[in-house]
């Protein structure tokens, strides 16, 4: 998915118990997207149906009333009219389709801007020192969870 705003939208969708379906022609991309989105939830865990690569034999899962996070190969994607309450993220095209019946809550501007900045620094850490004449030496990574 291109754009941090799309990632924040998908993050919001997962946090608010919506159905999210990734589409791609790459199985690796599908798996990475599903794992990446659940990693953003840390320390929370995704507790609904989670199928990074949904086989064609299980397409009926897309019609269940329970939330899910799934990935499906673009060649076997059902018609959009069958996905009335599913947020579809096209990984190859870089866009998200949110059906009209779904209203994703908006983050407050201050929280959204802080989240956007934090995610930008994760994805492109070189932006932190882009304007420095003499950049500081790189910081050593610190482990996130200490026991």
UniProtKB/TrEMBL annotation:
An example molecular function term from Gene Ontology annotations: guanyl-nucleotide exchange factor activity
Domain UDENN: 1-147
Family annotation (InterPro entries): cDENN_dom, DENN_C, DENN_Domain_GEFs, Tripartite_DENN
Pfam families registered for this protein in UniProt: DENN (PF02141)
Record GO biological process: regulation of Rab protein signal transduction
Gene Ontology, cellular component aspect: cytoplasmic vesicle
PROSITE patterns per record: DENN (PS50211)
Protein name: UDENN domain-containing protein
Source species taxonomy: Eukaryota, Metazoa, Spiralia, Lophotrochozoa, Mollusca
């Amino acid at each position: 998915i291109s754009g941090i705003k799309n990632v924040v939208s998908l993050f919001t969708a997962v946090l608010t118990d919506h159905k999210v379906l990734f589409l791609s022609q790459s199985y690796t991309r599908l798996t990475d997207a599903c794992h990446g989105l659940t990693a953003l939830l840390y320390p929370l865990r995704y507790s609904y149906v989670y199928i990074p690569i949904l086989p064609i034999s299980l397409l009926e899962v897309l019609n269940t009333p329970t939330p899910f996070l799934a990935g499906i190969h673009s060649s076997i994607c059902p018609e959009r009219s069958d996905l009335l309450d599913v947020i579809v993220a096209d990984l190859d095209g870089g866009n998200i389709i949110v059906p009209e019946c779904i209203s994703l809550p908006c983050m407050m501007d201050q929280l959204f801007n802080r989240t956007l900045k934090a995610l930008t620094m994760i994805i492109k850490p070189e932006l932190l020192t882009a304007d420095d004449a003499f950049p500081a030496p790189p910081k050593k990574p610190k482990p996130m969870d200490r026991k």
